[in-house]
């Protein structure tokens, strides 16, 4: 699979996917082990159909895919979306580190001066 | 090291930076309160910020622009949603068009700043929360020094190339 830049619509779907606590929990579980949709449904106080809908939202955001294994559908996490989020946050962290350095420079500059 | 810790939450899409400074809490508060000091550090030297409006009161608004190396201006607005001098402020930070009118569809960043005295220094904790990856990407374009942006771009293309190969 070739990794391309995401379109606006894809990004919207990604954030719609992240906006719900159940969907974040499904992602967290599916990241660490293999779950079928019914296996996931057992963890939540909601219907199988409701969990299936959450998985469908994650699928539309390209965060997970369903893989057929026998009669079960295994939910697999796609890491590309998460990877982009981590990379952008890392870049934003660089910006803040530079801001912190500039604040330090302003404060240090004044220390050198005699207090007016 | 002035920055003592950072935390990235890829699910909630926020960044926390904890830094300490050799100055009083009141002095640190001034770098936020005084627009002339704020514009000296908010944008990098290659993309300086100019605050032409800065109403530092609860509910007050600020208007700023950042000037790129080619002279192009990116405009933004802040609204101070909480101000408790000299220890706590919160603000929304959004993009604006050439007239300074908010472009809310681009997403709003929420910033929470906390200042506290720790062993004669001041600890500043900032939490920036984003609504979308595109918005975060635009913030990065506006706020990053040119050289670093190029370096990041190179790292990106290397990572993307290797992930393309890995997925084949």
How do the strands and helices of this protein lay out in sequence?
The complex is a heterodimer of chains A (116) and B (168).
Chain A: H1 8-18, H2 21-32, E1 35-36, H3 37-41, H4 48-60, E2 64-69, E3 72-77, H5 79-112
Antiparallel strand pairs in A: 1-3, 2-3
Chain B: E1 3-9, E2 14-21, H1 25-33, H2 35-41, E3 49-54, E4 61-67, E5 73-84, E6 88-96, E7 108-118, E8 121-129, H3 133-143, H4 146-167
Antiparallel strand pairs in B: 1-2, 2-8, 3-4, 4-5, 5-6, 6-7, 7-8
Helix pairs in contact in B: 1-2
Would you summarize the structure shown here?
The complex is a heterodimer of chains A (116) and B (168). By secondary structure, chain A is an alpha+beta fold.
Task: Please describe what this structure looks like.
With 116 residues, chain A is an alpha+beta fold. Chain A folds into 2 domains: 71 residues, Winged helix-like DNA-binding domain superfamily/Winged helix DNA-binding domain (Arc Repressor Mutant, subunit A), CATH 1.10.10; 38 residues. Chain A contains 5 helices and 3 strands; from the N terminus they run ααβααββα. Chain A has a 3-stranded antiparallel sheet with strand order 1-3-2. In chain A, helix 1 packs antiparallel against helix 4 and helix 2 crosses helix 4. Chain A is elongated and about 75 Å long. The mean pLDDT of chain A is 81. Chain B has 168 residues and is of the alpha+beta class. Chain B has one domain: START domain (Alpha-D-Glucose-1,6-Bisphosphate, Chain A, domain 4). Chain B is 29% helix and 41% strand. Chain B contains 4 helices and 8 strands; from the N terminus they run E-E-H-H-E-E-E-E-E-E-H-H. In chain B, strands 1-2-8-7-6-5-4-3 form an 8-stranded antiparallel sheet. In chain B, strand 4 and strand 5 form a beta hairpin. The longest helix of chain B is centred in the last third of the chain and has 22 residues. The model of chain B has no long low-confidence stretch (mean pLDDT 85).
